[in-house]
């Protein structure tokens, strides 16, 4: 039996990247899945991959904008309505936003990134924590970033939002540990996802792969991480094996956070 037999795992940003990788991993270990994304087509693609790897998986697909609290409340209530509980929540949806010096960021662009990356995480925590408190158990993993524990040039909106995710994680872990709920975050570095590729294309255009080589040169391991490597970590942190890891932020960045 896998670590997630009879468990229900809710994942946002499940249509690609880290969300899809985590969905695949926990499904292989027996989880029932509630998958949320703003892109319905991408959700269908994730479902196909999951069923190819774990054909018996019970999957609920929910199209929702995490920046809309009413949509968040709906995806939580529909998950509980179908499965009766939420054992684990990977609060993952986010965007990178534009690459600009702080002085060149427009207010609209800054607000867009913060609304999705920070408010969306807060809305998810607010409504899932209610469920988990009433259950008396549960695990939440938020997606922060290396940009949430150090500065990242030309990404003020992203860094501000991810620093906020770190603060929310630590605060909620302190608040909800007494109710049997653990809250932690991952801080990925250079992981080759569609979002990261889009960011590199924004900088380098057709030469984005050369920009990518420079991007990982600050990483002691000199390579991009793989989404499945993050999926393994998330699966562990969502499992009951990691219940005593609380109010913590776990880097997965090849050592980038610790390099001077």
UniProtKB/TrEMBL annotation:
Superkingdom to which the source organism belongs: Bacteria
Keyword annotations: Oxidoreductase
Keyword Oxidoreductase tagged: yes
Organism: Domibacillus enclensis
Name of the protein described by the UniProt record: NAD(P)-dependent dehydrogenase, short-chain alcohol dehydrogenase family
Cited Gene3D superfamilies: NAD(P)-binding Rossmann-like Domain
Family: Belongs to the short-chain dehydrogenases/reductases (SDR) family.
Pfam families membership: adh_short_C2
Biological-process GO terms, alphabetical: bile acid metabolic process
GO molecular function list: oxidoreductase activity
